[in-house]
Amino acid sequence: MSEFVPQKPHPAAPAPRRPSVAVQIGKVTVGGGAPVVVQSMTNTDTEDPASTAKQVAELARAGSELVRITVNTPAAAAAVPRIAERLAMMGVEVPIVGDFHYNGHQLLEREPACAEVLAKYRINPGNVGFGKKKDSQFGAIIEKAIQYGKPVRIGANWGSLDQGMLTALMDENARRAEPWDASHVAREALIRSALDSAALAEKIGLPRERIILSCKVSGVQELIAVYRDLAARCDYALHLGLTEAGMGSKGITASSAALAVLLQEGIGDTIRISLTPEPGASRTGEVIVAQELLQTMGLRSFTPLVTACPGCGRTTSEFFQELAKTVQEHVREQMPVWRIKYDGVENLTLAVMGCIVNGPGESKHANIGISLPGNGEAPAAPVFIDGEKAMTLRGDRIAEEFVGILDDYVARRYAARTG
């Protein structure tokens, strides 16, 4: 029997961030060691400035640090300055990214105000142009970015691969002594499309510090494989996202599974969770998921999160579930105010537990915790503050009293901002 050799334990933290070139987008820094940036995209008709500005503002207030809008028609391009004006009137300063496909070179030429107002351009090398026009139309957008001092995301996508490059790589692969499988060839085409386009942009004159790359696919394992390879082959800032992730729990699970692996390895400088919203649901859901992913991984702090037990036969009452929901909703409602008034409040930890098994222990680990009575337990709810039992709540006003304790703690514990 071979001797067991203990492995050195891994530190309980993500790997150091992959070194990358910093890119400035308005007041937001992407890459270069900056915190991972959360971004999102509108689904309104950009030709409608009122609805688009409203949704951009909602996304920004939810915590999206960059917001992308589709710029696909002359009317949409003409609307961009009006969207910016409305946002300025609302006091919203989030950088706006213009998403261009097919006709971006024409729109930027015809609408210089649009080219000026946008904080960044996004180009898909797979559909910026075809045949002989591909490089010239790509170059026209890059020249506009140089003219107006804008950064560019070169975003290759599995669903719109450069067919010329894919064909060439397939021919090259056929000549290999040990050919790659089809998925490997497709991944290489995606990566090569992004890297070759970035090289062309630099050749035209766009500085490296104005280039971000992305290579999006819809499969979890494919995304991990693509970005590991891409990260090893360049030092550009990288945008992470699973394209067409899906709706609800499927989209959240798939995006989190893929991005968590990469982020844990130090790969990725900005992320988007591309969720298909439920009919009538707010677009801000994808922002909250992105924030919670980064926060639960220990990469950033955005808002206090509530630890709550899942419930079991000891906790047939729904009260602890209702209290956990009440507390989490209260925190999210108050954060816009707390963020302005208090430093560090986003690091606050809360626990709402359902019975005596783990309740007191978990509550002691949180800044503020409450252990509610389970089946057969005394109708009393001990409250713990910074690890010490502070009081016991009883009666019909436990939820109201606990929220009051939370508000009082925030006001006392966190220093008010001075300017």
Proportion in helices: 40-55%
Report the end-to-end length measured between terminal Cα atoms: 67 Å
The count of helical stretches stands at 13
β-strand number: 17
Gyration radius, rounded = 25 Å
Q: Which CATH top level class of the largest domain fits?
A: Alpha Beta
CATH architecture of the largest domain: Alpha-Beta Barrel
Domain IspG TIM-barrel: 22-290
Catalytic activity: (2E)-4-hydroxy-3-methylbut-2-enyl diphosphate + oxidized [flavodoxin] + H2O + 2 H(+) = 2-C-methyl-D-erythritol 2,4-cyclic diphosphate + reduced [flavodoxin]
Binding site for [4Fe-4S] cluster: 309, 312, 355, 362
Pfam families: GcpE, GcpE_C
How would you summarize the topology of this molecule?
Layout lengths: L22 E3 L2 E3 L6 E5 L7 H14 L3 E5 L3 H16 L6 E5 L3 H7 L1 H6 L2 E4 L9 H16 L3 E6 L5 H12 L7 H23 L6 E6 L3 H14 L3 E4 L5 E2 H17 L5 E2 L3 E2 L8 H12 L8 E4 L10 H23 L7 E5 L5 H7 L2 E4 L9 E5 L2 E6 L4 H16 L6
Parallel strand pairs: 3-4, 3-11, 4-5, 5-6, 6-7, 7-8, 8-9, 9-11, 10-12, 13-14, 14-15
Antiparallel strand pairs: 1-2, 15-16, 16-17
Would you mind describing this structure in some detail?
The protein is an alpha/beta fold and 419 residues long. It has two domains: 23-297, Dihydropteroate synthase-like (TIM Barrel, Alpha-Beta Barrel), CATH 3.20.20.20; 305-413, Sulfite Reductase Hemoprotein, domain 1, CATH 3.30.413. The chain has helices at residues 49-62, 74-89, 104-110, 112-117, 133-148, 163-174, 182-204, 220-233, 248-264, 285-296, 319-341, 359-365, 398-413; strands at residues 23-25, 28-30, 37-41, 66-70, 96-100, 120-123, 152-157, 211-216, 237-240, 246-247, 270-271, 275-276, 305-308, 349-353, 368-371, 381-385, 388-393. The chain has an eight-stranded parallel β-barrel, surrounded by five helices. The chain has a five-stranded mixed sheet with strand order 13-14-15-16-17, sandwiched between helices. Strands 1-2 form a two-stranded antiparallel ribbon. A hairpin with a 2-residue loop joins strand 1 and strand 2 (28-30). Helix 1 (49-62) crosses helix 2, helix 3 runs parallel beside helix 5 (133-148) and helix 6 (163-174) crosses helix 7 (182-204).
